[in-house]
Input
Amino acid sequence: MGSITLKQVTKNFDEVNVIKPLDLEIKDGEFIVFVGPSGCGKSTLLRMIAGLEDTTSGNIEIDGQDATHTPPAKRGLAMVFQSYALYPHMTVRNNIAFPLKRAKVSPAEIESKIANAAKILNLTDYLDRKPGQLSGGQRQRVAIGRAIVRQPSAFLFDEPLSNLDASLRVNMRLEISELHKSLSTTMIYVTHDQVEAMTMADRIAVFNGGIIEQVGTPLELYKHPVNEFVAGFIGSPKMNFIAVPQSEDKKTVNLGIRPEHFIISQEQGTYKGTVGVIEHLGSESFLHVTLECGTTVTVKADGDCPLQYGDAIFLSAQENKTHKFDKNGLTIKTTL
Amino acid sequence: MTIKDSRRSKLIYTIAAWTISGMIFFPILWTLITSFKTESEAISATPALFAFEWTLENYSDVLSRSPYFNHFWNSVVISLGSSLLGLLIAVPAAWSMAFVQTKKTKHLLMWMLSTKMLPPVGVLIPIYLLFRDFGLLDTKLGLVIVMTLINLPIMVWMLYTYFREIPNEILEASRMDGATIGEEIFHVLLPIALPGIASTLLLNVILSWNEAFWTLILTAANAAPLTAFIASYSSPEGLFYAKLSAASAMAIVPILILGWFSQKQLVRGLSFGAVK
Output
């Protein structure tokens, strides 16, 4: 079991309200990602679920039991930290054994659990090394191993991949996703990287300024963002926003078009613009186009796009692929 | 900077360092040399550095006149005892100040340090009366208590500085792993902070060993440590420089040896918070 329910949870640091009253239901076995910019409260909420931060008001229920004031060790959760937080004076074996020893598990069972975790995480050859002798990826695997052996009801990941280099991050992302599939345990994963969120999550909760803007599957968020913030945060490169002249549409203030939803033409189109910098990624190119109205938009084009810096082009949005936002930034109608 | 310039500045720094070290060490060297002189040579108007008749007479006199080993044992008990007792109190105090900070933590730390700025003579009478009433005068236990209290602010400050260098996440991880506060401190914090704890212990042993004000006032014969032993050679009949030097040498050599062997640890511990 590993269902977690947050009911009207808030958090204040002195006078500052960092989490506004918030409700969220995390289902057993679900992989939910908390995503949002720095300082939006996502890590604070994770730490509140872990019990490392007090809850100012509201309730946190784990498997139907009120755990709001339960100490971290008694919540049955395991956490993987951004800085790995391994015990530097202990070998990998002792790091993984630490939670089991605290739980008074028999030495024979500890050995078998360590061997099992080491096998899953490819750490068998490194069990007698200390964390200082391991690479970043191996250290992160040890941290995950330490979490696995406790057989927690849920795993909490606090930006676990941000200290790794780009290629290792992709590998570890896959490993964590595979781990989730094989263990089927609830995972709550905090990141500011929307690519991690999109690729790993069953559901994503988008945070901003201490509130959850929207919760949904990655595709729901991509296709039907509820406001400009979610629309701009989900998707890479981010959505373009073009101001709509008030004479055309009184309600719509901004029009949102994703870079991949533009049609490029050299003869005609809705917007006329000049090509600026072109980023060639091989399989695709990103054009930075300055429109006549002064707005610069990012446009996704083919890898072998023949356009050059300074070329004049026309852009139009693909049919039914625009998002309209009102003066409060809320979505008016998404025509997908 | 050219290689030539860098060599020249290195030479200047080396000479300056040796000169300052020589100035600091000279009184100790002079004490050691004087301890091998006769009393008349020790007070000679033209003092000799090495060209004199070397003798061990002062040492044999001092050993026959005073129970050196009793004083030595008292010094060991008082300095080690107060440092260990101090650690027992300072570790949990520094833990809470470093990891469970409140708004008042900084003020509390400053207040603790400010007590070190008061002249000890200011509390002489109350402490003496308390010691008299509790029967602690001239007891090792009394001195252990007083030394612990005197050095506690420095111990807490030092440990607080070391603990602040340890990422809070490591301790949080242990909490998530089911460790109690005691287990968190014993299994995680202390082993990681061992260099800092060792240097705190060493520094406090040295400070307690060298402390003279309270040891001279609160002891007579039974609990008198080596500082009182040295002072006993400045008598109303006059100063016996050679014997005084021999007694001083016998008192400082043990701590000098300890300091020599632990200097690497001490320097490492004292600069722990300086470089990340």
Q: What stands out?
A: The interface with chain A takes residues 167, 169-170, 172-180, 183, 187-188, 191-192, 194 of chain B (CB under 8 Å). The two ends of chain B are 27 Å apart (CA to CA). The longest strand of chain B covers residues 234-235.
